[in-house]
Design brief:
The chain has about 220 residues and is of the alpha+beta class. The chain has helices at about 25-35, 125-145, 155-165, 170-180, 185-205; strands at about 5, 20-25, 45-50, 70-80, 85-100, 110-115, 215-220. Strands 1, 2, 3, 4, 5, 6 and 7 form a seven-stranded antiparallel beta sheet that branches. A hairpin with a 6-residue loop joins β5 and β6 (about 110-115). The longest helix has 21 residues, at about 185-205. About 35% of the residues are buried.
Length: about 220
C-alpha cells in the first residue's frame, strides 16, 4: 500500500540502522525540516531518502534523477542556526520504493511503498567470512595509520549485513546494489566481496583506501 513522505534526495545511499549527519541549507529542505518540527511526536518526524543518480539537484524531472529504492529515515537530532540552516542527525528505518516524486511544492514529496525484506537463513560460514574480512580490512587500515571504522559488529546476520553495508568503503553504485539486495545472505556476500576487492587494492596501493569512509555510524535503534 502506497504512502506519501517528504523526500530528501542525497548524494549518498542510506541504510536501515545507519546514522548520518546532515547539513540543511537549501530553501526546500529547510522547509522540509520546518514541516518535521511541526510534528508533535518526535518519533513521527520521518522522511524518505533516495540516492541521486547524477548531478546535484532533483530538478523538475526529479524522478529521472534519483534511484527508486531508498530508505525511510527518522530525524533524531536537530540544531537550528541563526542563518536559517540546520544541522541534523538522521537514522535509517527501513527500505522503501519510490513510485512518484512531486517537486512542485515547498519541498519534494514522494509516493512510496514499503519494500519487504526476504527472510532467509544465513549460513554461519557466510556471516563468519564477512566478520573475518572486515577484521582484516580494519587491520589493513591500522597498518597505514588510518582510523578504522568501529570494531563491534552485531551478531544477528540481518543487522550484520546492514552494519557492513554502512561501514564498508563503497562506491555509490555498490551502496545502491546492497540496498536493493533482497535478503541478508545476498547482502553479506556482496559486502564481503567488496571488502576483499578493497583489500586487494590496498595491497597494490597501500597508502590509502580506494574509497574514503563516509562519516556515518550504524545503530540497530
Amino acid at each position: 500500500m502506497s504512502d506519501t513522505l517528504p523526500m530528501f534526495p542525497l548524494n549518498t545511499v542510506l541504510f536501515p540502522g545507519m546514522s548520518v549527519p546532515l547539513r540543511v541549507f537549501e530553501d526546500r529542505y529547510r522547509a522540509l525540516v520546518h514541516h518535521l518540527l511541526r510534528v508533535e511526536d518526535p518519533t513521527e518526524r520521518v522522511f524518505g531518502s533516495v540516492g541521486i543518480r547524477e548531478g546535484y539537484e532533483v530538478g523538475e524531472h526529479g524522478a529521472q534523477w534519483v534511484f527508486r529504492v531508498g530508505c525511510r529515515v527518522k530525524m533524531t537530532e536537530v540544531e537550528a542556526h541563526a542563518d536559517g540552516t540546520f544541522e541534523l542527525v538522521a537514522v535509517g528505518l527501513d527500505r522503501i520504493e519510490l513510485e512518484h516524486l512531486d517537486t512542485s511544492g515547498a519541498y519534494p514529496v514522494g509516493r512510496v511503498v514499503p519494500l519487504a525484506e526476504h527472510e532467509v537463513s544465513v549460513p554461519d560460514a557466510v556471516a563468519e567470512a564477512a566478520r573475518v574480512t572486515f577484521a582484516a580490512y580494519r587491520e589493513a587500515l591500522l597498518e597505514i595509520d588510518r582510523e578504522p571504522p568501529a570494531a563491534e559488529l552485531p551478531r544477528d546476520p540481518a543487522y550484520l549485513s546492514w552494519a557492513l553495508a554502512a561501514l564498508a568503503p563503497l562506491t555509490l553504485a555498490q551502496r545502491q546494489a546492497l540496498l536493493e539486495a533482497e535478503d541478508a545472505d545476498a547482502r553479506l556476500r556482496m559486502a564481503t566481496d567488496a571488502l576483499r576487492a578493497e583489500l586487494r587494492t590496498m595491497r597494490v596501493i597501500p597508502s590509502l583506501p580506494a574509497t574514503e569512509i563516509a562519516r556515518t555510524r550504524w545503530s540497530p535503534n
